[in-house]
Amino acid sequence: MSSSADAPRTATARRIAGLALPALVVLAAEPLYVLVDTAVVGHLGPVPLAAVAIGGTVMSMGVWFGTLMAYGTTGRAARRFGAGDRAGAVGEGVQASWLALGLGVLLAVLGTVASEPLAAVIAGDPETAAAAAGWLRIAVLGAPGLLLAAAGNGWMRGVQDTRRPLWIVLGANVLSAVLCPVLVYPAGLGLTGSAIANVTAQTLGGLLFLAALIRETRELRPIPSVIVRQLVLGRDLLIRGAAFQACFLSAAAVAARFGVASVGAHQIVLQLWFFAALVLDAVAIAAQSLVGAALGAGDTDEARDVARRVTLAGGLAAVGFALAMLAGSSVIPRLFSPDASVHAQAAIIWPWFVALLPVAGIVYALDGVLIGAGDVAFLRTLTVVSALFGFLPAIWLAYALDLGLGGVWAGLGLFTFARFAGLTWRWRSPHWLITGASR
């Protein structure tokens, strides 16, 4: 029950929009840049497009760790902020930033060393693998900046500040979007120019978030015990993210084995899917902040109200996005590649893409609610079960039976519906409503 019968309502539509709209720009900036990058590289030919698809899939592991940083830090910081401890909320950001820096450097080193074998395993085709490895060796150097930016986003969302991240992320990505076509074409760097533009955006963003943290607090020393606690608390998000990575890496590998045109089409539609996911996640970011703050203050009624409003908003927004994608089905793929074989493969999976979006909108919203509540153990289990018994068997069966990209995206549909069923059940239960400054 609520800690106070007349507790002030903060989960109004205006409050949610005030947090969600700046977060929307932040979330959209990175995938928009990836879409620009895909379009620029796509006009170099199907092999460079496939190379970016493979290299980008490997780099998504860095994005996975970044999501862990941002979402885990948001939940912890929001609970402290809701309990009246802003300094403690910022302190979570300091320790998350140290963790991000160390992990980012480690990823950069490992990615540089392992770029060739990773690309070879995923690509199958030697020409595509060589191009992907060359792109990846440079792009992976942006990992420290990528993770520092994620940690910065996390603590700022926790204290309900989504405006500063807007300007930081937008500025870095606009600069990189301008650099990408210039480096690829007039400068004649091709795929190398694409990778350099990626590193530029990620490094600049990380440095700007780090500067904002230094202006916020003087307590910048690392505290190993807190960092270890963050790692322990983040293990469920880590396992959940590993399940996602296993799914999408497997999907890329299967798509690659259906040919260059198939993996190119898969890259285009998958990036649009990720773009939709992150845009629709804007209301979920608001949910993380508001649910965490409400439970930190002991107000379960407010937490329930946020969950209800966010779920409705997520579903409606996803329907709107699906209608836009349906209307552009014959035009959008041509923006990313002039190749007719890529267009033909994209047409096969486009109906799956459009049909799954409304369900996914609700799934993303409820993910945000439960992450804000700290109920990540349930999310871990649900995601792993959905991957092991849904997505992975379906896509490898599609490969065995030569079902093409339609089979791969049928697996994605099974994965999405399994998560939808589990999340709606959990939402209707009281198990996620645990109050206090920490969980």
Automatic annotation (TrEMBL):
Coiled coil: none annotated. The chain crosses the membrane at residues 52-72, 93-114, 134-155, 167-189, 195-214, 237-260, 272-298, 310-332, 344-366, 378-401, 407-425. Pfam families: MatE. Its main location: membrane. It is found in: Cell membrane. Keywords: Cell membrane, Membrane, Transmembrane, Transmembrane helix, Transport. It comes from the Bacteria. It is a multi-pass membrane protein. InterPro entries: DinF-like (IPR044644), MATE_fam (IPR002528), MdtK-like (IPR048279). Belongs to the multi antimicrobial extrusion (MATE) (TC 2.A.66.1) family. NCBIfam families: matE. This is MATE family efflux transporter. It comes from Actinoplanes couchii.
